[in-house]
Amino acid sequence: MVTSSSLVYLIGLPLFGAVFLLLMGRKADKWGHLFATAMSAGSFVLGLLHFFAMTNRSEEERPITQTLFTWIEAGDFKVDAALLLDQLSICFVLLISGVGTLIHIYSISYMSHDENRRRFFAYLNLFVASMLLLVLGNSYLNLYVGWEGVGLASYLLIGFWNQKPAYATASKKAFVMNRVGDMGLTIAIMIAFATMGTVSFDGVKEAVDRVGTPTLTAMGIMLLVAAAGKSAQFPLQAWLGDAMAGPTPVSALIHAATMVTAGVYLIVRSNFVFDAAPTAQLLVVIVGAITLIFGAIIGMAKDDIKKALAASTMSQIGYMIVAAGLGPAGYAFAIMHLLTHGFFKAGMFLGAGSVMHGMNDEVNMRKYGGLRKMMPITFATFGLGYLAIIGVPPFAGFYSKDEIIATAFNSGGAQGIILGSVTLLGAVITAFYMTRVMVLTFSGKPRWDDGVHPHESPALMWLPMALLAIGSVTAGYLFTQGEALVHWLSPLFAKKGEYDELMPHSVVTVLAITAVIIGVTAALMKYQFKSVDSVVPTDVSLATRLARNDLGQDVVNEALFMRPGQALTEGIVAIDERVVDGAVRGIGAMTVGSGATLRRTQSGYVRSYAALILLGALVLLAGIWVVTQ
Q1: What mean pLDDT is predicted for residues 542-553?
Q2: Of 165, 505, 535, 597, whose CB neighbour count within 10 A is largest?
Q3: What is the pTM (predicted TM-score) of this model?
Q4: What is the DSSP track for 570-621?
Q5: What dihedral angle (degrees, nearest 10) is formed by the CA atoms of 105, 53, 137, 77?
Q6: Are 372 and 445 in contact (CB under 8 A)?
Q7: Residue 498: which pLDDT band, with cuts at 50, 70 and 90?
């Protein structure tokens, strides 16, 4: 039977795997990948045992805590290094360790020819351990340690093939933009410490009633900044597309199932802050709605299969952020979509890696076509994920996205109409760009180059894809039966209260399915029933060019932040060199010059010294004569 004292092993197993493999070096090359996979699998098994134990306890007794040691103690302020496993964190533990283990298994084959495979698996273990610490920490400070560990592991994995300058640049871009978001979390922790005297989740929750709304609003906004950075939300979303430079399993683990959902976790975990700060909560909804459409538009124009899926991830997390911003009515649905998304998006990223494996690492979908015959298992598993993400019933995405759209419409007033319309528009665009990916990749005539021989991936790659596809089919249904997930998470949130059902759920379902039909039909008309050129067309509209260039997000960031930052840095350097260093160099030069002048008087000749004595005596006598006159 598992107890609270075993929580540390959830993190300890993959952390030990990472440290052990890095210290062993080349000695572990032959078996390091198997050891790392075993450590991740062990964490998943332990998570399952904790889950079953939790279901056998009463609702009040389900959360358990393990205190490891006193981390900080200064007067009345005290922070323990402690872990909290409750109904919310167990969902993430199973997702992180379960999907993470499948990706480890997939990587055994995918990275089989890489001479640094052992180091890659060590980084995967490090990432899993850091992500588990992030969701198990019982305070914002403990969460912050995992938050930064995840950032480090992401940097190492995105730039794993850093011998290519573009890949190294991509990892640095992701690292820097995430540091901007991390400043938001840092300031939020400072606000909690300064105004509440605590940084634990329970302590902040208890202090909410005695802290003013402006303070909570400031803290909520800073938490939103942190979430935007980690979850690639507007305006800190520019790093996600470039992060596809890393090996495909990295994209599946970090940029589909786990790290990019950390921002959603942070907002939902901080529900007591946002419930008491309506302005911050409204900003959460606005950021999510903008990113939802922003990412979907970019996804329509990408020919790189991984970047198309990355834009899709950005958009789908926008749905989750919108739901999280709707308060008690939406928290559970944000987590539901997060969990279903973990299945179908991770499966599709692995499917993209399978396609690349069979196509000599080609990522341009315009050079695919007709692969369903050569790669039937990849086609089937990817296709199930496709049906889930666009929201076809009874696949997983239908249930979770449908609930978010319904909650948006029923949020009331003009906000409900606008937000509901935005989420429906997102459903149309999602159906369009994902159908485009399916058609360009698996349908039509072959368009690949000579010398390419598409083939199905080995079992170690398609087996994880098949298991994730099963989740893509069944997860939504399981979560919604008897409102299972809603009831499971409800003790952690404020009561919903009574809401008027402005838009009946049946009407929302019809609208959502209609949106899917419109998007699929438009994509089929454009790509299925017309010939597709293997060369990227250049005579396209301005809107298409903008979408291909990520709607100018890099241009805007360079103009508003990078160039002014460079100019400011250059100015500070110039002041330092000319004023500060100039003054120091000037004093040094003056001292050296004076010394050189005085040194000429010390010739060492007696006659010269006698002449100077005589001259001094004459000057002295002359002075006396002048004074006495």
Answers
A1: 85
A2: 505
A3: 0.90
A4: HHHHHHIIIIIHHHHHHHHHHHHHHHHHHHHT----HHHHHHHHHHHHHHHH
A5: -160
A6: no
A7: low
